[in-house]
TrEMBL record:
PROSITE patterns named among the record's database cross-references: AFP_LIKE (PS50844)
Pfam family, one: NeuB
Catalyzed reaction equations: aldehydo-N-acetyl-D-mannosamine 6-phosphate + phosphoenolpyruvate + H2O = N-acetylneuraminate 9-phosphate + phosphate
Protein name, entry field: N-acetylneuraminate-9-phosphate synthase
Amino acid sequence: MPAEFELCPGRKIGGSNPCFIIAEIGQNHQGDIEIAKKMIRMAKDCGADCAKFQKSEIEHRFTKQALERPYTSPHAWGPTYGAHKHHLEFSHQQYRELQQYANEIGIFFTASGMDEMAVDFLHEINVPFIKVASADTNNIPYLEKTAKKGRPMVISSGMQSMETMRCVYQTVKKHNPNFTFLQCTSAYPLPIEHVNLSLIPEFQKEFPDIPIGYSGHEPGIHVSVAAVALGAKVLERHVTLDKSWKGSDHAASLEPAELAELVKAIRTVEMAMGSPIKQMLPCESSCHSKLGKSVVAQKPLKKGEILTLDMLTVKVAEPHGVRPENIFKLVGKKITVDLEKDATIIDTMISG
């Protein structure tokens, strides 16, 4: 069983704990703090455990040349990439306001730290855990600095190899025992054939002492539900209020009705996972009383006869008697009463 740890105050992941569901708002708020608050409320109302954003210190994350390049995408919020990113980036004070709002309505709040200075800020405002985006998963200096903060870490694996993930594991483990890997393919939206859910059990085998989760960008909810059935202990999905809005992530996001259905489906599947012990359950007693079979006499039997297999058969009988799987144990035993054909054979009728 993978290790469990407290990801947020009072909320553990791993082991038999419920899947922790992250509603990734990211930058789907369009740069509008009121929309961001509506999305936090939507995540809470739909049953998600956490509302998550993406925090960047833009001049620290990007080079000057990267920020100055023209940005002509239909999703652009400005003429250059820098202007576009600045439009979508909330200030420190706005982050504190959003965090306070999330606390007031009762949902965990965090963000991906998209650079080292962003991680410093998130640590300063005391988020419960740091999300490591796939673009920083092989950024070893960043990982070491983030791990040393001592906060739990949720680490996506998009664009990485298993060899790289082994390196990531060793890097983080030296400084911080509380982290999880998410199977992730970095495409938006993600074609179903590239989801690779088979990597969830592979991650579980490769890293048996940490919980494994899934970060999905595929259409719909079915694949994400399957990920939980495979053992994902954290699930992250992008969310939006409207898939038609400007922004490249909206098409790969879930609208409120889809998120609510996803949460409901996950909790149903978790209940359905049940117990690994196979046994007849109390809820099966009615069916068993009507249809359960027993060993009966194939022909009339006389008291004192030694039973042979041709004297016995299996039928639905009243009352119930010896279970069918025990029929061979009766061979060679003595019957202690006279029985008519089709009479139920009960344990107390057997000697020897």
